[in-house]
Design a protein that fits this description.
Blueprint (H helix, E strand, L loop, with lengths): L2 E10 L2 E12 L4 E5 L4 H4 L1 H11 L8 E7 L11 H11 L11 E3 L2 E2 L5 E2 L4 H10 L4 E5 L3 H4 L6 E5 L2 H10 L27 H13 L3 E4 L6 H7 L9 H13 L15 E2 L7 H5 E2 L5 E2 L1 H4 L4 E4 L7 H5 L2 H6 L1 E6 L2 E6 L3 E6 L17 H8 L4 H4 L4 E4 L5 H5 L8 H18 L13 H4 L8 H12 L5 H17 L7 H12 L4
Parallel strand pairs: 3-4, 5-8, 8-9, 10-17, 10-18, 11-14, 14-17
Antiparallel strand pairs: 1-2, 2-4, 6-7, 12-13, 15-16
Helix pairs in contact: 2-3, 7-17, 7-20, 17-20, 19-21, 20-21
Length: about 500
């Protein structure tokens, strides 16, 4: 037999695709030819696979070998095809019967000594196999627990090529996915740690309940970072579809916790202010990998010291803020990743940033305007909640023994508010108030009485509020009403929403 074929799985972005790995061994000068649009890492597989086969005690076929990966028009990247290539070569050489691999997808990276190493993106790869009708997969031991979360798929693992060969020839057992224990994630910081700052706490609660973006301004020590870090603690846990999507993104990025734990809590990303555009939105050689905006999908992206970020990096967030997705085009093709996150910006009001606030500020008015001007107007216009925090006073610090509301209590209110919003917008497919387009809120049956929005319309006419800002205030008003258990916002809700958006009562 000189021809053999097995199934594997490839990745394009976060989407998996079934790939047929076929080999033809023919007489001629010994050589290995790889076809099917392989990248550099895959082209190097010929040397890894040869060493792994020989060091696993198998005979390398001294023939002309052609390995093809179908569909040939799809770019193949990475080292995940190593194990399938080794199996198909041994099968084509007559060394290994391949009947045991009928209807089975195989992937894994090979070390030179024949060990099978874990690869990135195992979860979306197994999910793609299941979608393609494959109910059995063989994966590296290091990916087994991660792969086992996909329902309806029997997962078996291998740690060496020798074990896989022994399974086929002698019926030796493969490995079961390790029991990593419960998927409990470590507890994060609690909102009860925040002293004072009633306005900041209210802003974070409203943001969590409606899925709104937040900008926190204030001097050092006012609690901006503490509030931002505690936002995930009051967000609802991810549902099954969301958890699968988030876990798949972290799998592709190689950012899953040890053991391949299934991620149930909303992710939190806090890149440093020196981060590049590529670090934020995604990039890298070949097909682009997910950046911080995608790793914070269905969670929180926190940009501390936002005014210190590169302006191009900040403005690159504008499109994913609107669409919830990021499309990256590179020389090897286009990759799309989900990026529906809550943005939290924190910034000092000026370069000198005195902890006591503006009282002792040494900056000129021009310097202050230039500093915050690094955050562009179009980006700020997309931020629903914009509040300025005052420095803490001694009385608030000394009252630290008075218990603040813990995250669990606030999270319960947030969960009820989100349920109310989801029920209200269910027929339209929106889940949170932040997703509702402005025209829907300005038309019956959701349009508010003219008396409740008169002040907002006046601000638009005077150029103090944009049309986007008008719509975002309406969304905030609906969220405030949901938190307070009312079916529709009233004038007081619009007033509070305006203050949260502009810092000024209408």
């Amino acid at each position: 037999m000189s021809y053999a074929k097995v199934l594997s799985v490839g990745l394009v972005g976060v989407t998996g695709h079934l790939v047929e790995v076929e080999a033809d061994l023919s007489p001629g000068l010994p050589a290995v030819v790889l076809s099917g649009l392989p990248d550099t890492a895959l082209n190097e597989a010929r040397d890894r696979v040869r060493a792994a086969i020989v060091n696993s005690g198998q005979r390398w076929p001294s023939r002309r070998i052609t390995v093809n990966l179908l569909p040939a028009g799809m770019r193949k990247t990475g080292s995940a095809f190593d194990l399938a290539i080794a199996v198909v070569l041994l099968g084509g050489a007559g060394e290994l019967p391949l009947a045991a691999f009928d209807g089975v997808a195989i992937f894994g990276e090979l070390g030179l000594d024949g060990t099978v190493r874990p690869v990135r993106g195992a979860l979306p790869m197994v999910a793609a196999a299941a979608k393609g009708g494959i109910d059995r997969v063989i994966v590296p031991l290091g990916n087994a627990r991660e792969a086992s979360v996909v329902p309806g798929v029997q997962v078996k693992a291998v740690d060496t090529l020798h074990r896989l060969v022994a399974f086929v020839r002698d019926g030796a057992p493969l490995l079961d996915p390790p029991d990593g224990g419960p998927d409990a994630e470590p507890e994060g910081p609690d909102l009860a740690d925040v002293v004072g700052q009633a306005l900041g706490r209210r802003a974070i609660e409203v943001a969590a309940a409606g899925g709104h973006h937040v900008a926190l301004l204030g001097p050092p020590g006012a609690g901006k970072t503490m509030l931002a870090e505690r936002l995930p603690s009051i967000l609802p846990e991810l549902d099954d579809d969301g958890a699968l999507e988030v876990t798949a993104l972290h799998s592709v990025a190689g950012a899953l916790p040890p053991g391949g734990r299934f991620l149930r809590r909303p992710p939190f990303q806090a890149p440093h202010h020196t981060s590049t555009v590529q670090a934020l939105v995604g990039g890298g050689s070949g097909l682009a990998r997910p950046g911080a905006v995608s790793l914070s999908h269905l969670g929180v992206l926190f940009l501390d010291e936002a005014a210190e970020f590169n302006g191009r990096a900040l403005d690159a967030l504008r499109q994913p803020l609107e669409t919830g997705r990021i499309l990256l085009r590179r020389a090897d093709g286009a990759t799309e990743y989900p990026a529906r996150f809550q943005l939290v910006l924190a910034a000092n009001p000026c370069p000198c940033a005195k902890p006591a606030g503006d009282i002792f500020c040494e900056c000129s008015p021009l310097a202050r305007r230039r500093y915050l001007g690094r955050i562009s107007g179009p980006l700020l216009d997309r931020i629903d909640v914009q509040v300025t925090l005052d420095p803490l006073g001694a009385a608030e610090l000394m009252a630290a023994d008075l218990a603040s509301e813990p995250s669990a209590v606030v999270a319960d209110r947030v969960l009820k508010a989100r349920a109310a919003a989801a029920a209200r917008w269910s027929e339209s497919g929106w889940r949170t108030n932040a997703e509702v387009p402005g025209p829907a809120l300005r038309k019956p049956p959701w349009r508010l009485p003219p008396a409740d929005t008169k002040a907002l319309r006046t601000r638009i006419d005077h150029g103090l509020l944009s049309a986007r800002g008008f719509d975002r205030i309406l969304r905030l008003a609906w969220t405030i009403a949901d938190l307070d258990g009312r079916h529709r916002p009233d004038r007081e809700d619009v007033l509070e929403a305006t203050q949260l958006r502009t810092g000024v009562a209408p």
